[in-house]
Amino acid sequence: MFRSLILSTMLICVAAVAHAQDSAMKTCGEKWQSAKAAGTAGGNTWPKFLAECRAGLSATPAANPEVKPASVPAKSPSEPKGSPVLPAAVDGKFTSLRPAQARQKTCSEQFQANKASDANAGLRWIQKGGGYWSLCNKKLKGA
Questions:
Q1: How sure is the predictor about 57, in pLDDT bands with cuts at 50, 70 and 90?
Q2: What's the pLDDT at 8?
Q3: What DSSP assignment string belongs to the chain?
Q4: By the 8 A CB rule, do 55 and 71 touch?
Q5: CB–CB of 109/143 below 8 Å?
Q6: Which burial class, exposed, middle or buried, applies to 53 when counting CB atoms under 10 A from its CB (0-12, 13-18, 19+)?
Q7: How far lies 88's CA from each of 34, 50, 91, 142, in Å?
Q8: pLDDT (average), residues 115-128
Q9: Angle between helices 2-38 and 46-59 (to 10 degrees)
Q10: Would you list the DSSP string of 11-41?
């Protein structure tokens, strides 16, 4: 009986700490996005900014729970900044490969070529919500 009471208390404490850390991460993340958007990050990297933010949060008294920080509208990672340059069709040198492999190699070559001219519209090869590979593969499947 006593052991279960101790275990329950420990679990509640662990859950409270985890919630506080999640809350600090969210608050610091919002501050980071605001600072980046405003150009006031001061050359800081995310890890350094996070460490300073967490230190600031632990040093300040508890905030008024009725006042919530303004949220920054997050841009979906799958929204490209413009239109990426995509190949029109599968490259002929890959016709001996399976269709999926031919599309992948064609898209990969175009992605690498686009890097030099920043023509990937800010997309990574694979990313949550669909990256360059996803868009390119869909286009070539339809072509």
A1: confident
A2: 65
A3: -HHHHHHHHHHHHHHHHHHHHHHHHHHHHHHHHHHHHHT-STT--HHHHHHHHHHHHHHSPPPPTT--PPPPPPPPTT--SS-----SS--GGGTTS-HHHHHHHHHHHHHHHHHHHT-STT--SS-TT--HHHHHHHHHHH-
A4: no
A5: no
A6: buried
A7: 38, 43, 9, 10
A8: 89
A9: 120
A10: HHHHHHHHHHHHHHHHHHHHHHHHHHHHT-S
Task: Provide the token pair at 6.
Answer: 């101790």
Q: What is the mean pLDDT of residues 45-74?
A: 63
Question: Residue 47: what pLDDT?
Answer: 81
Looking at the predicted structure, is the pLDDT value of residue 68 above 60?
no
Sign of the Cα torsion 26, 28, 34, 37 reads negative
pLDDT number for residue 27: 83
Q: Which two tokens stand for residue 25?
A: 């991460």
Radius of gyration (C-alpha) of the chain in whole angstroms: 23
Distance CA 29, CA 131 (A): 23
Judged against a pLDDT cut of 50, whether residue 72 lies above it is answered with: no
What pLDDT is stored for residue 64 in this prediction? 47
